[in-house]
Protein 1
Amino acid sequence: MMGCRGADLFSEIDMLRSQLLHNVEVTADCQRVEEEISPQDVLTRIENIILGIVTSLSKDEAPVLALPNRSSWANVSFDSAIGLQMSSGSSVTTIRSDCALSVAKFAQILKILLVIYRLVQSNSYATKRDIYYNNTQLFGSQKTVDGIVDDISCMLKVPRRSLHVFATSKGLISGDLCYIEEDGTRIDCHSSSADATFQRLLDDDFCTKLSPCIIITGKGVPDVNSRLMVRKLWDTLHIPIFALVDADPHGIEIMCIYKYGSVAMSFEAHSLTVPSVMWLGLLPSDLQRLRVPADALIPLTSTDENKLTSLLKRPYLTSQPDWQKEMELMQQTKVKAEIQSLAAIAPDYLTSIYLPNKLRYGGWV
Amino acid sequence: MLTEIQQVLRLVMILAKQRRRCGLKTAGGLLVLLWTDTGDSVQSLNCTVAAAGPWCRGIQMKALQPDLRDLEEIMLPCAWPCPPPDPEELFAFTDLYGSPKLLLSFQMNARLLRPEWCARLEAFLHTFSVHNAGINIQLRFSLNQQIVQRDFRVKTKSRVALANQPSLILDVTSSTVPPDWVETGRWCVGGHPVLGGRLPLSIPPEAMDQGLFGELSVQPVTLLSPCVLQYPNLLTQLTHIKVLVCSPSNVPVTGPSTFLQNLPAHLDCRELGLHGLRCSSFKDLVHSSGTVYTAEQENCEDSEQEWSPPRAQQRLLLFLFLQHNDPFTCQLSDIMATEVLIERHLEAILNNNRKAVTAALQTELRDTLKVQNHRKKDQEKLRSAAEVILSSSISIVSCSSNMDFRNACLNCMKARDTHELSAALRKSLWRVTSWKFIPKSKCYTTQMEEHPESDELTRAEI
């Protein structure tokens, strides 16, 4: 079980928090104040797209839509205060209305623009799922709708939430948090449901033992809502945020998405990234230090090694020498491990020893 | 008269082909001069065929005389030699192409001529010109003190390379006039022949009995006209297919073919994307050379709509080049006789290879018309997407409360209300989509220059 509670347990965390708050004050003026996009702005931007189409046709030219390219590393730049953000003047993909290969996408974009226009105009909301099921023949798949909604957000330079289109969240949250949604609904996060490690933490009553604390999971690669929630918690509460991920390249990448953002959503980096995220565990150096049994370790596959090499080349790693060391250690040992591997030491090792000690003694990087 | 001229042309072509194997050029001139003589109350028609230019370089009349004497019986059964024409009659020709390497003159009783022989001769020479586009043909009639001259000179030609054979130079000129709004230089005035798969043919016993041996095959070449490759969204509609058969010496085979006339009944029109094919009546074929099929059209649902997408009507030319190889046939007279046998037994040869020929032609037509069918599918995609684009745009304009935006849209399209705006947008979208232009370097622009003496393909880079 854990050692004594009280000020000792949180002294390192409090020091970290002070440091983070100091950085926030220093950079507050420099950070972009998030642009408020009014519903009328959204409508106007959509009308401009339509006017562009009408103008092209009036000149006997085929209408085209220019979508910023959200999948190219060449279109993002790294800022330590923000993370990965879309560069100005990034390359665009042209969607033509006179080409059989792209005209379907052109039509899908127009259809979703119409849906968004009506939602914003009537101040109502819909999910991406609703949009898909209203016209499955046009869209073909949910993935198509999902991609186009993000494309429209990027094209109009409007945050996703301003489009009045929701995604169904896959993330989970639990802990010492209550909040009220825009429509007045009160949400109490003291109870929640499952994901393996998350459930383990709940079963061991981790949030009570380490109270006050909030645990959140995106169940793997986080969706936008999960990232928004983490970002909201940081913006509102300025509490230290620690990442607990598997000691493997995929886990590290998930953590990087929370901290620095993704290429695909780089156009919304300002509202999604949390550069203050610290890597709490499971660290590759923990595996050696704690002598995790060998049979709980898994050899890296060639995909893992390629992913690791790719991560080490990412622009944000140069400002994280400690993370680089951990990843180089993984490259050398050529093994990975899941968080659950700690159960090989003792069934409750994670919640009774590992996490409390990590938090008490500042075992994060 | 036509048969005699055909035979003389066969001789010229065989001689030229033998020299072309040595890599000589295919350009030059051919003169067919006809004039009447009245004497002894029998009207005679005289004919001179002269060949000049690079394509017949190396032919020497003197050296050929012995062969010509032997060939007279085969070539000119109803004619007899006659003196050559007045040299002045040849000036216009020799000025352009130089002195003739080959000049043959013969005479026949004008009363033996079949009706409409002039029209038939013109049609034949036109078809000959299509197959041998490098040769410029002058046809001059000097009859009853009237002089009529026709020049068969190809504007746009294309070379088709063959394995182990001299290349074909085909007339690919398109006579289709583009719509007014097509800008100058944006319409291909030629076509792009496609070489098909060569099909070996077995020789039927009755032909073998007559002395036809060796390896016989048919080489199909297809040509769609007009070319609309530069307009990828333009719908096309096939109206006619014309089949032209050519002997091994590249001389057109004349006369109707029952096999070819009945071919549509054995083709799978559905696979070709056609509703049906019917052979044109024989009456229509008299002057046309070749076998012509009319493509039956579906009832167009577009006609019920306010505005339907434009379609380019196309014709398909299917060349069937007969090829023959027999190492034991090398004498000029034997080669001539073999060709005559092939033509005489062509019907039997085609029937003897009915299944294989039908399947091969089905494949060639299917591959050629694949593009048309793809266009139909693409057109469907464009049409259904256009409906969504237009309805979404109009909905946004209609439900917008921004008067500036609404007025800007209406003014752009000079519409009074959203109903007119919808119609104007629809028409414009269809027009810009259907007539989308993508230049292709292999297409022929209207600024092409003619080079009658050159053996090079003439085309302009777009």
Protein 2
Amino acid sequence: MGLELTIGTVWGLPTMEMTSGKCKFHLVQAAAAPMAAATGSAAVKTAKSCKKQRAAKRQAGIYTYQEPPHSNSDEDTGEEKAESHDPEQIFQNIQYQKEVMSNIRCRPWPMRQKLRALRQAKEIVLKYEGRLTRTRGYQAAGAELWRKFIRLAYNFVVIFIPWEMRIKKIESHFGSGVASYFIFLRWLFGINIVLTIMTGAFVVLPELLAGAPFGSTLSKTIPKEHIASAQDLDTIWSLGGYLQYSVLFYGYYGRDRRIGKAGYRLPLAYFLVGMAVFAYSFIILLKKMAKNSRMSLASASDENYTFCWRLFCAWDYLIGNPEAAESKAAAIVNSIREAILEEQEKKKSKNLAVTISLRIIANILVLLSLAGSIYIIYFVVDRSQRLERAKKELTLWEKNEVSVVVSLITMIAPSAFELVAALEMYHPRTTLRFQLARVLVLYLGNLYSLIIALLDKVDSMSVTDSDVNSNAGNSTHFLSTKTLSKDNFSTSVPDVQMKSNSIVTLEESLTQGLTVSDSLLNNTASFNSQNPQDQCWETYVGQEMLKLSIIDMIFTVASILLIDFFRGLCVRYLSDCWCWDLESKFPEYGEFKIAENVLHLVYNQGMIWMGAFFSPCLPAFNVLKLIGLMYLRSWAVLTCNVPHQQVFRASRSNNFYLAMLLFMLFLCMLPTIFAIARYKPSLSCGPFSGQEKIYDIVSETIQNDFPSWFNTVIAYISSPVVVLPALLLLFMLIYYLQSIARSLKFTNNQLRMKIQAERTEDKKKVVQMAVARIQNLDGNDKRPEQENDLISQESSAWSSTPRTNGSVLNFESPASKGIRIHTISQSVPQAVPSADTARPATAAPTAPASGTPSASVASVQKARNDQVTNRYSSAVHGSASELCKAKPYTAVPSKKQIEDVHSEPLFRRGLRQVSAEAFEAGAPVVVGRSPCAARYFLVNEKEPRRKPLRTASRLQRHLRKDDSGDIIELYPRSVRRYVVRTPCQVYSPHPSEDEEDEEELRREFMSRSHRPRSLSDLHPAPRFYIGEHGDGHILMSKDLARVHYKSWNDGFELDLDRPPYVYRKVHLNYPEPRVKPKSKQKLEQSLTESDSISIESSSDPQNSSNDQYIQVIHSKEKYPKFTKKKPKTSVNLGMSEPNELVCSNV
Amino acid sequence: MGGSASLLPRDLLGEYQELTFLSKQEILLAYKRFSELLPKEEREISCSTRVPKSQILTLPELRANPFQHQICRVFSTSEARDDSMSFEDFLDMLSVFSDSATLDIKSHYAFRIFDFDEDGVLDRNDLEKLVNCLTGQGEESRLNSTEMEQLIRNILEESDIDKDGTINLSEFQHVISRCPDFASSFKIVL
């Protein structure tokens, strides 16, 4: 496994030769390894390999510098040869290969590699699939076919996405922002197509095919007095004449309940389709919004990485046009500057009075213009109706002034708002928001005032009509009509006299609004005998909406041509002979204002929704309009526009657009629904003539055409008995879902915080290690030997610990000595681990970062990467239970070490030289460092270590017998394991290095003792620095060392050598001087205490230790400068402890 | 398209489709565009030849891109490290920049594009270069040193979770995955 993985690492780096990249590799694999290793013995090899690979892959998905296919294939082929013919295993393998194939494209490999991997996987699948059962083979073949088909279909479908290439082209020139407008347009186009199909298939076509032909009924004939002008251009233009009496409008549809041979229920269909239009729009909108919000990770919206996004996501890679690129770059610079400024001035308060007053003024202006526009619309509608009353013949302008004025306002007002917004000095984004909100309000206001005025006009029109016909007046009668209107005595008296005074009352009625209009409707109804077609208010509304839509289209085209195209032409060709730079100063090129344009689309769609019920062909018209708009706009954008400076964020705004659209839909639906629910349909025209209400058609159908039981059921369902509880239930459901959503959000937040906390924890650990390693790197130069020795001792200790309780027997440990032994063992870890842990730590972070290490050191580092990675990965899993996780790693590192070990000798030599040279200066520094490391270690690793240590110390003798062989079964910590090996292999090949080599060779256990000795020979100082500094007994320390070694050899009676460590420990815990004999016991206590602490709450102590650590590090990094200071600190440390040291020696 | 399509073996085309996020048309188009970059005599074997970086950068899609050199470097598998691209590299690039590529892979490559010194982390120098790339070389558009300092500090504050003074891949992906615009703007369409 280990080997395979290393192969993987080698292969994984074909393109990037980064050292840290390699580190990461190790991380990945080490993290993956435990899972794999945990799966079990070699017997289950293939199944294991699958899991292994998957695990590796999962990990690899995160760290994307991952193992390449080669390792897979190597494993696969290797294993498959050995593997049995167990179909289950084969199946799993194949499954795995398929998985590889299915998401291979998601891997960041170069193509060659992917290709190889894919081919290999395919080969394997092909080869082994046959061995499986036949059904599985068929399944696989079927799946393959299906996939091919899907691909084909996908390729096919792509062709039919309208304007795909066009949009892509725009996208590539202007970026995604502009493209989002066109995508939105296309989406609207899609919706309108569906609406068109709905109305066309269920309403228009049946009417055309099966309905009564043109001219057959009164409502389908052009009245005689109009027939002459029915084909005039201006009549057609104002949608009168033939157009008015066509399927375009509500009035044309027949009132027969069933038409054609099949008995198609046209009125019912008309009503249902009218409702379905809204329902469909709602559903599709909400669906789209839900999808969008899912995509945009709405839950994470509270996380804001303003700066990062501005930087990392700033560039729009689609931009291919140099001009667009320029303006984009400028926009990016602006936004970055803005952000910086904001950050800088966040706390500063500005002169608020001026800005606030300015903003108030601006808002007043905006409100005034809104009110003005609404008034103007109302006035125009009013005026046109007065004109109609006064004149027989209207000019073209008079006929169209309403739509023209509305369109003009929609065109001009946004620019005015923009000017006003400049006053406010908001942040651009806020400005944009305000602008959009104002424009939306304006559009809505326009539509609403228009529709209200229209409804009024409908009434007045019918009234005036009647007025023309009848001069006599009977005001009282009319008044009674008016009052009773709600009771619907409706067709009351078709009395010509009735309307006499209506003009007077009309003025009132206009102001009184809808109730009056209601009554007037009744009046209209009463006049059907005279002039039926004029009383069809539904047709009238439909006409107006269609007219508005047409005029709007014309204005859009005009504005595109004028504002964009001709301006662009002028700017381009006149700029040479003009006195200022036209391109950059005043007229410039037209900007493509995404937001406004999108709003315009929304507005347009709102008109469609508003009028669709009264003019079934409106969606069809809108489809044409959108197609035209698409081509025109895209042409204009490509030829004469530059992208908006203020780039409106594309994907986020998508939902914003949709939200506006939804809002619009709702508001546009209201008048229609209101009219349907409130007004009585025209008597003489349309499918619902003669009914009280339009929706009566449903109940009527149910009553007449459904079985009676269904009737009763409906009656029950619609009764309050059912409706009220249902409503309640709905409310409860909403509340429930909402609370669930809230709680989910809450847990989401919690989890996120937890992840963050844990990640920081882990990172801290890594930093600790890195720090320790950096420290030690410096230290390494000086005293590699010692460390190794320590490690070797340590490792032996560790290795032997676990199972070999029997070993204790070897070494006669009487109960009485127990205490002593313990102290020893514990003292060892303090010092030894310090060296041990510190070293591996160096590898991870930082080979690049710390420039210090020589090449030789580097090799060692690499060798030890695995250790670090082990540690790291366990840390990644965020567990305090490092122990458990550490176990599985063992196998991997141990193999690696074998190789690594070979490199070590080099390292040693180099180091030794270094150390010899730098010995003088280095020693004290090292001294200063080691305690820190020790401290760190104590806190961090106490838990796993404790037991092993105790046993270990006892087992040292035992070790010589079963040296390296033990290792594998030994104590789980990979770190130790690894260390264990080094002694045998490293040392044996280089016997010449030390004088005591022969000794070593003779007796293995001696090596442990011997190492220290050699060390001491080389650097006596570092070891017992405390003693040196504190007491100044340099000789003493050497002696001590000697004693110490002997003690190792002789047994464990010798507490003498340990004391330094012991003392350190004690010093940490109990700074005050204390009595010799008790010190050991106290030591133990302290140790156990700290142990328990570390076990129970690992994090806090770690942190604290970190702090200490980090401080140390900093000084370390500046080590060259501070070398002189260092000794002091060490001295200080030493100063407090001399007593103990001495004591222990004694 | 038909002429050049015949040069791409069928099965290879299928494999390319499986290995990239591109549709058949897009691959063929890419092939066409790619072979247009080559001199005439080499078009026959455009699958195996490499297009030098200077040629690649003449593509309008890359021309305006401030990261063009980085993009070439990241996607080039040239052993000579001259950032030349083979057709497969080219496809790789288009695949990563295509519409349907996953956010993961996009952000991974974005990271590599931003990692100017290829050391696996974004450090201060990388960020500085990145900003300079974005702002261009103009005197007035360039950020001055205090602004730069502030910007980098803020960026690290936001994204550097482990506070090691650099942004590593996972930190980067964390930030990027929350950026609503990234997926839509990290695209190149032929």
